[in-house]
Every structure is written in C-alpha cells, then in structure tokens.
Task: inverse folding
C-alpha cells in the first residue's frame, strides 16, 4: 500500500495496528490458557488468566484514546477512516473475547478433578477453532485482507456445530447424572463461551471486510440454530 | 458519462477541452451541476479545477491564449454560442475569488454597483432595499448596517469576502462560482463563509473549488475530483470521502498523492 505523504500518519496507523495485535494476542492466550488450565485442572494457571484480563481492559482504553487522537489530529478519510472506525469497534469485541477467557478460567476450580466425560474432551478442539478464528480475523485486520476475513466467517459454522453437539450430549448426561448437574452446567457454559468467541471473531471479520472493501460482506449460509428448531 | 446530480441540472458540460496555447489544461470533461446542490471541485494544484470553474462563466475569455472546446449549457442554453451576452452571463453566473477583492469604494457602493449597471433598482429607495437584502443574505448586514459609507477595504478579510459574496448576490445570479473562497481566511471567518454557503444552498446553484478536503466534505453534496486535467470521479460527497471508487481519488483524499 502506498504510504501517506505525512509519515507520522503511517506511524499512527502502524502503532494502532501493533496495539490491536498485542491486545488480540492476549485475548487468544486467555482462551488458550483457560482451556489448558481446564484440561490439567491447573487452578494456578486459571487464576493467572483471570488476573491477566486487566491488561486486556487497559489496552482497550489505550486504543480508544489513540483512535480519538488519530481522528482529531489526522482527519482520516476513505479506507483510513473505515480502518480507524473498525479498530474502535474491534477492540470492544476483543475485550469481550478476553472476558470469555476469564469466565472459562473462573469455572476451572468448580469442576472436580474426577470429572471426565466426553464433552470435556471436545472442548480443546472447539477452543482451538475459535481461537484460530480470532487470530486470523486480527491478522486480516492488520493486512486489510478481505479474503481472509471471509474465510474466518465461513468457519463459524464449525464452532456452532461443536456447540450443538456438546449441548445435546450434556443434556443427556445431566438427565442421567443429576448429582453432577452443577458441574455439567459449568461445562455447558464453557462450551457456550467458546461458541460466543467464534461469533465475536466472525463480527471482527465482518468489520475487517467492510474496512477493507467499503461494502458489507455477502450473506453466507449459517449453521443450524437449535433455537429455531423444536428439538432444542 | 458522469453521474447525474440529485437535483435538476442547472449547468451541464459535455466533452469540454480547454487549451492554453499548445498546452491542454482540461481533457474531455463532462459534468452536470445540480440546481439545489453545492458541488465541490477538488484536486491537486494544476489539476484544472479552477480552469474548469472559469469556463462556467467564460472567465477564460479574458485569457488571450485560452481556447475552449465542447459544450457548456446554462438551463440548456449554450453559453459559448454567439448569441450569448457575456455580461449577462456573468450576472447569472457570479464569481467569488480566492482573495477578497472589494472595490475601493464604500460598503454600500460595493453592493450597489452591479444592480445599477444592470438596471435592477430604479430609485434610491429600491437600491437601499437591494443593498440591505444582499448584505443580509451574505450574513453581513448586522455587522455593517451602521457604517455603510465606510470603505469596503476597511473590513476584516472574512467580512470582505462576505461583502464580495453579497456583491455577487446583488445582481440576482442563478449560479455562484467560488474559487477557494476561504484560503485567505482564518478558521472562524471560514466557518462563517461555510455557514453562509449552507444558507445560500437552494437559492443558488453553488460550485466551490477548494484545496481543503474537510471543507469540501462539510459544504458540498456532490464532489468532483480532478487530476491532470481529467475528471477522475464525480459522486455523492459522503461516498467520495468514505468509499471512493477510483484509486486515484482514494490516494488523493487520504493523503497518499505523489
């Protein structure tokens, strides 16, 4: 991409992208570490994730100030303007992704070490897809890459399918094992959190697509939503 | 063919070429200027935007080496036809320049001069009405009503520019051309001119040449981007500044030009 005549403007934009990359990296790590903590039942690692969320919140505030400053000082237009506005919206979403990591981590100590059932073994795979969606959405943002953003949107269905599958399994399991229903509910919430991470990564990808092209992304086929069907 | 404006066409240019001697300053420009809109011409220095603006009331006639080809119409009438009275044309299509250029006469006479030579006011009382109306429309009346016999050149730069706009308004034009009207003014005087443009919209078709892109964004409904004598893109201002179609437009408005 051609550089701005005013080099300081390029520096501002690169600085903003670096901050968002850092914030996104921390949110990805929060999801990753929370799931590792869950798999190993590592309460200390889980506590670290909860603590680390403050840094993500602080980065959000820093980026918001930076965006306001760029608008005030540089008066960005066209694709620059769309990128800056997308940045402002994206940090709000990334902050939520970080919250989901924290929320998963908070549930780790509440799930007994003895618990071991099938959905628990599905969560790491589901989490990996969601986390990669977050990473790729933010990479697409940094590169203004509309094709990559579309690719992220297409993957949301896989996360939804995982969630629907876990939901059904957990409902069956809870009916058969009413004594562990509290733990099972926590596992279900974790799956729901990961499903929301996928949705948020998709939202980021949609904003990236708009920032890069100036158009809304094309309508895509969505995964089945169990709230739309009777069986749910 | 350029996009059509949203309001009825007031002026239309088709396949216009302008030459200064051998050098071609405008290359095959076609554009429609809407009656109820402010149209902004933007582009880097030397892109031809001011030259093109001047073709709209035949100001280039005063440049010996200038030659205009193509067709420019006002209400469908060819302004370069032999039957066109250039003095009348310039009353119908008024112009405000970069540097405020009031006559070295009183404020009153600055406004009254045009209507007098065009016979628009029969009596002193009629002329008083014309002067007051014009100064009110130019947003200057309250500031100068008690000193109409002061010299126009004694006013501040911003007031002088509004006096020049009042002078253009006084001869009841249909179109007002503005060639960087705020480039010599401070931000407050600029804001007053922009507010005035907003108020005049609908009464006159307005075409403004500006180097200040934020100004084009603030005052206009349609924006035309000129580059190297060609009209690169012409469209709705909000779209030009958020999602231009042409890479050259984008590079210019985002500050990546050259």
Result:
């Amino acid at each position: 991409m051609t550089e701005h005549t005013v080099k300081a403007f390029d520096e501002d934009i690169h600085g903003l992208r670096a901050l968002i990359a850092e914030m996104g990296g921390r949110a990805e790590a929060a999801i990753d570490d929370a799931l590792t903590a869950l798999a190993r039942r590592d309460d200390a690692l889980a506590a670290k994730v909860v603590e680390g969320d403050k840094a993500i919140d602080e980065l959000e505030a820093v980026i918001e100030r930076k965006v306001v400053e760029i608008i005030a000082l540089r008066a960005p237009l066209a694709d620059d303007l769309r990128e800056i506005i997308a940045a402002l919206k994206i940090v709000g979403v990334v902050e939520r992704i970080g919250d989901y990591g924290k929320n998963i981590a908070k549930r780790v100590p509440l799930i007994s070490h003895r618990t071991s059932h099938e959905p628990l073994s599905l969560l790491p795979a589901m989490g990996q897809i969601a986390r990669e969606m977050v990473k790729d959405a933010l990479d697409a943002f940094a590169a203004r890459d509309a094709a990559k953003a579309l690719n992220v949107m297409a993957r949301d269905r896989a996360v939804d399918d995982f969630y629907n599958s876990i939901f059904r399994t957990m409902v069956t399991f809870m009916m058969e094992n009413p004594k562990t229903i509290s733990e099972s509910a926590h596992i279900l919430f974790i799956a729901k959190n990961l499903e929301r991470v996928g949705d948020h990564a998709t939202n980021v990808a949609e904003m990236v697509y708009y920032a890069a092209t100036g158009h809304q992304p094309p309508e895509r086929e969505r995964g089945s939503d169990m709230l739309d069907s009777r069986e749910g | 063919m350029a996009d059509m404006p949203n309001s009825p066409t007031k002026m239309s240019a088709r396949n216009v070429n302008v030459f200064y001697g051998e050098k071609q300053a405008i290359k095959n420009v076609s554009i429609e200027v809407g009656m109820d809109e402010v149209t902004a011409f933007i582009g880097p220095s030397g892109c031809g935007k001011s030259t093109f603006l001047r073709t709209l009331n035949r100001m280039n006639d005063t440049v010996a080496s200038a030659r205009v080809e193509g067709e420019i119409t006002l209400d469908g009438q060819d302004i370069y036809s032999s039957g066109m009275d250039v003095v009348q044309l310039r009353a119908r299509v008024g112009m405000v320049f970069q540097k405020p250029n009031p006559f070295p006469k009183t404020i009153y006479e600055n406004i009254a001069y045009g209507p007098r030579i065009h016979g628009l006011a029969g009596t002193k009382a009629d002329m008083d009405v014309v002067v007051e109306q014009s100064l009110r429309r130019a947003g200057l009346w309250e500031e100068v009503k008690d000193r109409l016999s002061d010299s126009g050149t004694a006013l501040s730069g911003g007031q002088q520019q509004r006096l020049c706009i009042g002078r253009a308004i006084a001869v009841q034009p249909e179109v007002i051309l503005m060639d960087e009207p705020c480039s010599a003014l401070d931000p407050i005087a600029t804001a007053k001119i922009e507010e005035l443009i907003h108020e005049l919209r609908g009464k006159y078709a307005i075409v403004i040449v500006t180097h200040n892109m934020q100004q084009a964004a603030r005052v206009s409904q349609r924006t035309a981007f000129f580059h190297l004598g060609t009209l690169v893109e012409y469209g709705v201002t909000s779209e030009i500044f958020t999602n231009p179609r042409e890479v050259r437009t984008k590079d210019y408005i985002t500050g990546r030009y050259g």
